[in-house]
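Bumping with the actual sequence this time:
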Amino acid sequence: MIWSLVGVLLAATGLGGVAIWQNTYDIREERVTLRQGKQTLDGVLATPTDGRGPYGLVVFVHGDGPIDATHDSFYRPLWESFAEAGYASLSWNKPGVDGSSGNWLDQSMDDRADETMAAIAWARQRPDIDSRRIGLWGASQAGWVLPKVAARAPDLRFVIAVSPAVNWQQQGRYNLLAQMREDGASAEQTAAALRRRKTTLRLLRRDASFEEYRDTVDDPQGMTADRWRFIKKNYTADATADLRAIQGTPVLLVLAGHDINVDVTDTETTYRKLLPASLLRVEQYPDATHSLVKHNLEQSELKLTLTAVFAPRALFASGFLTGQRQFLKQANADASKGGRT
């Protein structure tokens, strides 16, 4: 029994060492504070460890939810990959998350764009940041923020849009139906869900209160007053006009083959229609989910957890981290030539 216990302890110690090693990244992280008006946002600036700045910068724009600066460490493999290309990364806790003031559910997409512009202005004042090489990286809900910022700041070096939607209401319907299929819902269940959605849209158009929504919809599905207010601010969001207004900024559109959140066919069609071919690059990852995690991992909670602990870089679809790094290396090469594309 004693030797068995010793063996277990040694194995546990070894696995713990592997986990620590695999979750150690070749970046230097600095805690920073960003200010926008009266609001303060706690964030992280991750820089290459070689100490030879000024660096280009990737400004991260989160998707939906109460996300912290590292996205529970999910961003760190990306930061490391970007650092290998000579870029720093800037990310922050959403308002109301881990010390940042405010409440992210109070924000419109315009508010989120203002916040991102403030972060870019902050970065331009840093001597270790090359203001000529600042670009954006954003996922999912960031699809309604990135084009707004790029239209306002035409001197951005690039935009990387990962799994973005174009129209809020179209995306919501697509996600609802895709999730119902994924869950094996019956025709009756799907019809009921579509009726709830129709009622919800009718209430949103009337600017109904949360109390009226709660009393009208028979299955609120976790809706809160704050979330209802957030949806009312943003349910008409559409990226079309902002995409059309982008001038001269290269865009990398990253799409997944197993995305039940966003209709990737519609997104790609819209981006190709509205952006010049010379500015747009599209990368497809057939084995990926909406978050660019390997599909087979998201199918198993155990596999997903073990990979996150012991091999976090392997969470992402094959070639994704390499593709991101190569895109930034090309952006560096273009910058050295004085070009934009």
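The tokens above came from a reply further down the thread. Residues 2 and 282 are 58 Å apart (CA to CA).
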